[in-house]
Amino acid sequence: MTKTTATPLRYSETDPLAFKVLNEIGIIAQLARVELERATGDALSGAGFSVLNHLARLPGVWAPARLARAFQVTKGAMTNTLQRLEAEGYVKIVDDPKDGRAKHVTITRKGLKARDAALTGLTPLLKELTKTVGAETFRDLLPGLARLRSVLDAARDA
Predict the structure, then answer these.
(1) 82-133 pLDDT, tens digit each
(2) pLDDT tens, residue by residue, 41-85
(3) Chain CA centroid to CA 128, Å
(4) Which of 95, 86, 53 lies closest to 71, judged by CA?
(5) Backbone angles phi, psi at 48, to 5 degrees
(6) Where residue 40 falls among pLDDT bands split at 50, 70, 90?
(7) Distance between CA 133 and CA 65 in Å, rounded?
């Protein structure tokens, strides 16, 4: 992790609190993605890691269209990511036996190993963050962030 002095963000007094929080989360996500890509080098893109992490956390068979909806990207963007992952042997894509037009995506053992290797590459950063920010802070943040994610996830389907 590159050591820099962060410039405090300036918000207007009229900016809603929820906007400020979501803005901070967005910046954190961007910084984390850069660190992830730095840790994995050319082995895995941020998008590729996200898909592998999703499939590792929520195993089973996924249709590309369902993955595109989950990530809120176009079917074309998801197809591109899946093709790159398949070329590396990280996912398996097969025809749906009931509908030849549809596809089924599953993570492979190699894909699980790639996801785990990326996480291992992040271990020094994660340890440093835990030391600097504090494990208790992370434990305290997690339930609220999970609830926020859940609310936003439900709202997109409404």
Answers:
(1) 999 999 999 999 998 888 889 999 999 999 999 999 999 899 999 999 999 9
(2) 777 888 999 999 999 999 899 999 999 999 999 999 999 999 999
(3) 20
(4) 53
(5) -65, -45
(6) confident
(7) 38
CA distance 112 to 91: 9
Do 47 and 32 contact (CB within 8 A), yes or no?
no
Q: Tell me how far apart the alpha carbons of residues 81 and 77 are, in angstroms, rounded to a whole number.
A: 6
Answer yes or no: pTM beyond 0.70.
yes
Do 111 and 62 touch, CB atoms closer than 8 A?
A: no
CA dihedral 73, 75, 79, 80 (to 10 degrees): -50
State how far the Cα of 65 lies from the Cα of 42, in Å rounded to an integer. 26
Q: Are 59 and 107 in contact (CB under 8 A)?
A: yes
Secondary structure of residue 4 in the 3-state scheme:
coil
Report the C-alpha gap between 62 and 103 in whole angstroms: 8
Collapsed DSSP state (helix, strand, coil) of residue 40: helix
Q: What are the distances in angstroms from CA 20 to CA 17, 33, 84, 91?
A: 5, 20, 35, 37
Measured distance CA(46)–CA(35) in Å, rounded: 9
- The CA distance from 82 to 148, in Å, is 28
Instruction: Determine the Cα–Cα distance for residues 23 and 123; give it in Å rounded to an integer.
Output: 25
For residue 7, what are its two tokens?
């410039």
